[in-house]
Design a protein that fits this description.
Iron ABC transporter permease; about 350 residues; about 80% helix; ABC_transptr_permease_BtuC; transport; transmembrane helix; globular; about 0% strand; ABC_BtuC-like; ABC transporter involved in vitamin B12 uptake, BtuC; mainly alpha; single chain; 14 helices; disordered C terminus
């Protein structure tokens, strides 16, 4: 009996990536480090004693302690947004079987932006609760449109066709956004800071609005992970294993769009987080979605939070929006990935 248990245990351990425990511990350490940096650094540097006072000594009412308390919401919001974008990128890459798929590359962010602009211009929306539903509608419609265009023609929805359809759609929708804003100065004033992508306007209200979408999206992603592994083997093999590929794609894509749309509504269109976080985990742990999806939440939170800190330091005494920082980091990486993909295809 003991030998049988040991054998079963060894078989199960084969499916656990070799460095998973080390990576998990490292992610927790980096996450804690990023939280400390986010609370302490910015236009005003806060010392260790003031950091402790702001977090644990509520009776202390100094300026630095209050600065720390004000940064708590921003830190939590950046962690949540990064986790959502990381999981969204992992799901979109798994559904499309495209290693460079990302909400920003497939045009989903731009679709959400267009609907928010339309909401501001034609329906006078002003609150986060209103933004989020318009952004989700735009994200869903754009995702369906891009996948439909990418599925046309011979071969169906290939990775290259999806990226081209996403790029073309994003360019067209960006033009519509500009066309709506130019004759309406009040829309431009309200939209221009949002469209860059920033976590600086975070509040407890935004966080409470965001949490249900975050929980639902990540839960669906984790539950779908094993089936997405089968999908990676091809539709025919996945169907033979009992996976309903059409339903799986629909559910997983819905979760990815939900996470991306909610984040875009509250923080603006922040790009490349899904691409970067997923590739870091895949490079270390392999291609098992049971580990890629949850761990992408950790790496996404880390990357976005540290990018926000860098933006605050680089733009001091003001700040550089996090969307600019992630684009500056992500664009060269995307070019490298695209070049490697081209070489492999040849």
């Amino acid at each position: 009996m003991n030998n049988l248990v040991e054998t079963k245990g060894k078989e199960l351990n084969r499916y656990i990536p070799k460095h998973f425990t080390k990576v998990l511990v490292l992610c927790f350490v980096l996450l804690a480090f990023c939280i400390v940096l986010s609370l302490a650094l910015g236009s005003r540097l806060v010392g260790f004693n003031e950091l402790i006072d702001g977090l644990f000594h509520l009776e202390v009412d100094t300026y630095d302690a209050n600065v720390v308390r004000q940064r708590i919401t921003r830190t939590i919001f950046s962690l949540f947004c990064g986790a959502a974008l990381g999981v969204s990128g992992a799901l979109m890459q798994a559904v499309t079987r495209n290693p460079i798929a990302d909400p920003s590359i497939l045009g989903v962010n731009t679709g959400a932006s267009l609907f928010v602009v339309c909401g501001i211009a034609f329906f006078n929306i002003t609150t986060a609760n209103q933004y989020i539903w318009f952004a989700l509608a735009g994200a869903v419609i754009t995702a369906i449109f891009v996948f439909g265009i990418g599925s046309m023609g011979r071969g169906g929805a290939t990775p290259l066709k999806l990226v081209l359809a996403g790029a073309a759609t994003s360019a067209a929708l960006s033009s519509l956004v500009v066309a709506i804003m130019i004759p309406r100065s009040y829309v431009m004033d309200q939209f221009r800071f949002w469209q860059v992508g920033s976590v600086g306007s975070s509040s407890w209200s935004n966080i409470s609005t965001f949490i249900p979408f975050l929980v639902i999206g990540i839960t669906i992603g984790i539950v779908s992970a094993a089936a997405l592994n089968a999908l990676a083997l091809g539709d025919e093999v996945a169907t033979g294993l009992g996976v309903r590929t059409g339903v799986l794609r629909l559910i997983a894509a819905f979760a990815g769009v939900l996470l991306c749309g909610a984040t875009t509504a509250l923080a603006g269109p922040i790009g490349f987080i899904g691409l970067l976080s997923t590739h870091v985990i895949r490079l270390i742990l392999g291609s098992d979605q049971r580990y890629i999806i949850p761990m992408s939440a950790f790496t996404g939170a880390i990357i976005l939070t540290i990018s926000d800190v860098c933006g605050r330091l680089l733009g001091s005494p003001g700040e550089l929006e996090v969307g600019v920082v992630t684009a500056f980091i992500g664009a060269p990486i995307l070019i490298i990935l695209a070049m490697k993909a081209k070489v492999r295809a040849i």
